[in-house]
Amino acid sequence: MITTRQLEGLVRLTKAHARMRLSGVAEAIDAEAAIRLYNVFFGEHRRSNIKR
Looking at the 3D structure of the chain, how many domains does it have? Predict the structure, then answer.
C-alpha cells in the first residue's frame, strides 16, 4: 500500500529523473527509475528496522 505522500514523492522523483536526462517531459522510463529507487530505499529501510 502506498500513501498519498509517498505517491507525491514518486512524482517528484520521476520529474527529477527526467531533468537528469535533460528532458522536459517525464516518461515511463523516469517513473520506472523512481520506483526502483523507492523500492531499494524502503527495502533497505525495512531491513534495518528489523535488525534493531
Answer: 1
Which runs of consecutive H residues, i.e. helices, occur in 1-52? 4-20, 28-51
Q: What domain range includes position 34?
A: 4-51
What's at 3, amino acid-wise?
T
Q: Is 22 left (phi over 0), alpha (psi -120 to 50) or beta?
A: left
pLDDT band at 47 (very low <50, low <70, confident <90, very high): low
Residues 6 or more apart whose CB falls under 8 angstroms from that of 34 comprise 10, 13, 14, 16, 17
Q: Render pLDDT for 22-39 as a digit per residue (tens, 0 to 9).
A: 999 999 999 999 999 999
